[in-house]
Amino acid sequence: MVDDTDAHPEPPSAGTGGSPTLEEVARLAGVSRATASRAINGGSRVSARAQQAVDDAVRRLGYTPNPAARSLVTRRTDSVALVVPEPDERVFSDPFFARTLHVVTSVLSARDLQVVLLIAQPGDEEHRMLRYLRGRHIDGAIVVSHHRSDSLSDHLAALGLPCTFIGRPWTSTDRVSYVDTDNRAGGREATRLLLDRGCRRIGTVAGPADMTAGRDRLEGWREALGDAGLPTDAVVHGDFTELGGADACAALLDAHPDLDGIVVASDLMASGALRVLSAQGRRVPTDLAVTGYDDLGIAEHTDPPLTTLRNPIGEMAEEAARLLLEQLDGGLTLPRRVIFSPTLVRRASA
């Protein structure tokens, strides 16, 4: 049998009545089984003539490749993990994650890559997720909403697994690629907006202290108030959820009843804060002005509609997927960072 052949025999009869086999493809193409396997599964060492013959045979027979065989040849799984180290109830209720998943899936599916969603809370679930990543069941990973304690950037950098982070990781920033929004600038801009409208006792419902987004937005708030010579003591941390925002706002008002402005680190938390203010009879923005952060749909429907900083999560997720694809294609060898600017969206709450 000769691998590089121009012969095109008639398709073999389906004597068994089953699906076409690799052997039948090889016979029709006039090549060896090994050559047919390499041609179908993307391996090397296949001449152009043999590749064309195999492609023609696959098309004539309607042959469907075996994914497991392809993986053995290419060492690729054609799947990418979207890693979210958060409780599942938060992942499926927060529009931030819904938008991220939608955009990442759209970009990767265009390249015929399957997205595997990995959700893990700290503890045993996190250890299982790390074992899965170490097992190379996926070709790469996109990580979103990570915390200081999960050390995912260190783990993935040590594995040498292609990856990108949505949001700046705490460590290994010189070893992994990431995209982020300028959260510190956003915190400053929200605070300056309240200063410009005359607020002088401005508190904040900050994000989680173990997330870089939470810390950076808080630092922006502190910088703006510090530049204005105003106190920065009115701080309570929330967890980026509506209930967490309500609880944090209640605690903030108890400790600082004289506030005339609140910078809230996410729209979900701001929605909870607005409910607390309404229940206490405080008019927004007449008695107390409020800003949020994200602008992923909630801000338009609060009462009153929420002034917020637009977090370009769609663009960030698309860029993160693109950076990962560059790594998978071998075109990106050095870690990259891409920072997007937030945009102020003015509505009635401030």
TrEMBL record:
InterPro entries: HTH_LacI (IPR000843), LacI/GalR-like_sensor (IPR046335), Lambda_DNA-bd_dom_sf (IPR010982), Peripla_BP_I (IPR028082). Keywords: DNA-binding, Transcription, Transcription regulation. GO terms for molecular function: DNA binding. It comes from the Bacteria. Residues 20-74 form the HTH lacI-type domain. PROSITE patterns: HTH_LACI_1, HTH_LACI_2. Signal peptide: none annotated. SMART domains: HTH_LACI. Residues 1-22 are annotated as: Disordered. Gene3D superfamilies: 3.40.50.2300, lambda repressor-like DNA-binding domains. This is LacI family DNA-binding transcriptional regulator. It comes from Nocardioides eburneus.
